[in-house]
Design goal:
The chain has one domain: Rhodanese-like domain (Oxidized Rhodanese, domain 1), CATH 3.40.250. It is 37% helix and 21% strand. The protein has 102 residues and is an alpha/beta fold. The protein is globular and about 35 Å long. The longest helix is centred in the C-terminal third of the chain and has 12 residues. The two termini are 18 Å apart.
């Protein structure tokens, strides 16, 4: 995967403090479990929070339960001119990659 001229793997992206991980699941789902350091912006709130998202540094890494809602969020944000965005799938995969040694 190539980001800004550099080849990076998903673990490096997730553990890069310059990037922001945004979980687009609903607030109840997020409270039930989430990956460390993630910001919860439910999918239906994204249109009203575009300014907040535009202010985020690095790459905005989007996750949800399966990658479906975060895929919709990525497409919407790209349509709104936010290019530094990527769907990274399930929050549980994010949690695993944050904690795995390999």
């Amino acid at each position: 995967m190539k980001i800004l001229g550099k080849t990076m793997n998903l673990k490096e992206l997730i553990n890069n403090p310059d990037n922001t991980i945004v979980d687009v699941r609903g607030a109840f789902e997020f409270q039930y479990g989430n990956a460390e350091g993630t910001v919860n912006i439910p999918l239906d709130e994204i249109p009203g929070r575009l300014d907040e998202l535009k202010q985020m540094g690095g790459t905005i890494l989007l996750c949800c339960a399966s990658g479906n809602r975060s895929g919709y969020a990525e497409a919407y944000l790209r349509n709104q001119g936010i290019e530094n965005v990527m769907n990274i799938g399930s929050w549980m995969d994010v949690q695993y990659l944050q904690s795995s040694v390999a």
